[in-house]
Give the backbone structure.
Amino acid sequence: MAEEEDMDTSGDPVSAGTTTVVERVVRMSLRPPPRFGAKGDWKLWLSRFEMYATQAKIASGQRNYCRCSELEWQLKVRTRVQKVGESLMEFCGALRGMADKAFPAWPAEQLQDLLRNQFIQGVLSSSVQLALI
């Protein structure tokens, strides 16, 4: 009788009788998750990436969460807000770093306008926002 074969998520045949479900899950989890797409569930993708990075022993400071397209970086810039405990300088630096990836071909003046607007909108303190306007 022919041995049944399953396909794992990469398309590799897996003999049903030679691996356990746990072994297959562990083997699949050691692969980085597929590229995140615009229609994907970010929280689910991020949890899969975190599981992969932990098992692959990638230090948290060395984790590159995405191989994002410019459009994905643009979304990140436009939705970025100051984190609790993050200084204004840190917030500004984070926005600048993301904007360089999101808008590499934009003229400097246009990029400065976008960054200024996002910075003001993203600051946590309403009194600081008013002072910046």
About this structure: The longest helix spans residues 88-102. Confidence is low (pLDDT under 50) at residues 1-12.
